[in-house]
Amino acid sequence: MRILVIIDKAPYGDWRGREALDMAFSLAAFDQPVSILFREAGVNWLRPGHHSEPLGQKNVEKQLGAAGIFGVEALLAEQKALERYQLDEACLNAAAQAVAPDAAFFDQYDHVVCL
């Protein structure tokens, strides 16, 4: 059973992205094959140089750094969203890879979750 968790909200100002990340980490910790796809404003989670201290929130870069420890299979970023937010693969979190999700992409997952 392969699971895709989609994060489509900016990293700060909305808790749904953090909840989705927690869900993905929990699934991975229990040996469920899970990948995370960052779409729309969610690609900003992969932008380097977050300064979350003034907001009183955890730094998302540090949280994403734990993905491999929990066993998340892949961090994926929607190519269209990267272009819209003027990001390229060179400036992304090192573990992330750009993808152009289409029907075949989503068909490889048994469950797709977006909060």
The share of residues in helices is: 25-40%
* Structural domain count: 1
Poorly predicted parts: none
Q: Count the DSSP helices.
A: 5
C-alpha termini separation: 19 Å
Number of strands: 5
Largest sheet: 5 strands, parallel
Overall pLDDT metric: 87
CATH superfamily assignment? Answer: DsrEFH-like
Derived structural class: alpha/beta
Could you explain the architecture of this structure?
With 115 residues, this protein is α/β, with parallel strands linked by helices. It has a single domain (3-114), classed as 3-Layer(aba) Sandwich (Hypothetical Protein Ychn, Chain: A). It is built from five helices and five strands; from the N terminus they run βαβααβαβαβ. The protein has a five-stranded parallel β-sheet. Strand 1 (3-7), helix 1 and strand 2 (34-38) form a beta-alpha-beta unit. The longest helix has 14 residues, at 16-29.
